[in-house]
Amino acid sequence: MQALPQNIEMNVQTCMESSDSPGMLPPPPGTFVDREELIQHVGEFAVSQGYVVTIKQSKRDRVVVLGCDRGGVYRNRRKTVDESSAEHTRKRKTGSRLTNCPFEAVGKKDDGLWVLTIRNGTHNHEPLSDISEHPSARRFTEREVLLIKEMTDAGLRPRQILKRLRQSNPDLLSTPKHVYNVKAKIRQGNVTVRNFKSLRPQKSAVSNDYPASNPSSRQRDPLRVPNLIGGRFVDSQSFASIDVINPATQHIVSHVPLTTSEEFKAAVFSAKRAFTPWRNTPIMNRQRIMFKFQELIRRDIDKLAMCITTEHGKALKDAYGDILRGLEVVEHACGMATLQMGEFVSNITNGIDTYSTREPLGVCAGICPFEFPAMIPLWMFPVAVTCGNTFVLKPSEKDPGVSLMLAELAIEAGLPNGVLNIVHGTNDIVNAICDDDNIRAISFVGPSRSGRIPSSIPFVHSLFFLVDLLTMSESVETTATSDAPVTESVVAVQLGDLQNIQAAYRLNGNNYLKWSQLVWTFLKGRGKLSHLLGMGPSKDDPKFAAWDEQDSMVMSWLWNSMLPEISDTCMFLGSAKEIWDAI
Q1: Does residue 116 share a domain with residue 149?
Q2: What total of structural domains would you count in the chain?
Q3: For 78, which DSSP code?
Q4: Within 13 Å and on the Cβ side, how many CA atoms surround 362?
Q5: Using N-to-C axis directions, what is the helix angle for 283-299 and 375-386, rounded to 10°?
Q6: Is residue 62 predicted with pLDDT exceeding 70?
Q7: pLDDT digits over 192-223, tens only?
Q8: Is the pTM of this model over 0.90?
Q9: Are 231 and 411 in contact (CB under 8 A)?
Q10: Dihedral sign (CA 246, 426, 370, 442)
Q11: HSE on the CB side for 128, CA within 13 Å?
Q12: 3-state DSSP call for residue 567?
């Protein structure tokens, strides 16, 4: 989220002062990364003030209108009767909670971000004394929905399910009716995490201790990145983790656990168990999932690009390019029905015909680098799974968020449980992948120093090994088996050698001359001064792609050399020269 302009803060204060209910303040406006974050912000603030918001109107990719759940009026749908009759004189209690509450908040998408404004911040009713009185408190949590699904598959009845849920949560207010509703959604195939983002606050709603200031000052706890094993996102039991740092702000984005050996074996076992039914799935069905997958990627491309920019530091334009390059491979996989055809030659000699078929290998694995968090995973698992293989993916521990989002989209597209699994870690997981006898093929992408890791491991089983050695200057692709060494690449100077500027020399608005001299001298010494001058090769030059990738890294380094208040002003510029000229 970004800082609020001063005039918006004044509007917030005006709305607060004009509220009919002094204990119910409107949520502060702000800018949010996506629609879900905006809705979550409004919902959490509303609960702290004693009211609940609902979605009144929504155009998913453009606007969402949120209102108080007590908005609107009760409409008597009973037939009209004679005014002189006794029935007319009898007053009927409607039981309606609707009071035509005028509260309304609007979120609109503007230049890739969602902006929240308060159209009407007033209420005409009293706040709830306890949020548990509200019907939303009877909703199930995501974990409870998954448990209901498992117990339903096991043949338990709704009352038995509810009894077991109350053993772990005695405060559960749900009834068998709510269990029946969830079971109906299970039968319809509508059970996803997105459909059950429930709201069950545990504290009184009247307390106004929620920060009523700029929402950007509200620091959320960093997320612990889960593993994907057997179609479920599960938290790792490992106590060791690696912080994912936003290179522009130096804030912690998430914690990546170092997957344990048992969890890795569980992921491989899940992939192995899913292989037989998946390979027997008709190729047209597998191909149809890829068609849906590429459609979902296009739908959520804004979220994917923002995630890349947040974790990796790429400019938003480059993040879109990262995704689109990988999307080309997904589209290629959509034609697997013809690509997987074999060959047939009749009567090659007297009475002999020859034919060849293409068959899936089994469990495959992929090891991804830091540089292209979306493109490389999309190079790997879509083609592998469409051919009938199952896959274990290890994304880079520095930017794993996009891989998890892609996996979620693949599951939403219809990929069965266990076909795609994700584990996290460093060299230990890489070694475990190479040592596992159940993994029949590995796709590996990374710098040359990492490319030598697998070649040093003795292969005692038949293994197909594909290595893509990517550097900032060239790409080398080799294929090796147990008796063929991996070819080493000639590596140019990489921008990974750019060191962070010490905090004392970061641009703070008062030290431009010292900062600019340091940046100029440092990049000149690294041979990267052409990026500040904009003197790169033309777009028609074959060397432009490598130079453009280096320019993205220089942009990220420049942002990291400034305080967040300054880097935010040039976050959406398209080149290092534009940033240099703007500053």
Answers
A1: no
A2: 4
A3: S
A4: 13
A5: 160
A6: yes
A7: 544 444 334 333 333 333 333 333 333 333 57
A8: no
A9: yes
A10: negative
A11: 24
A12: helix
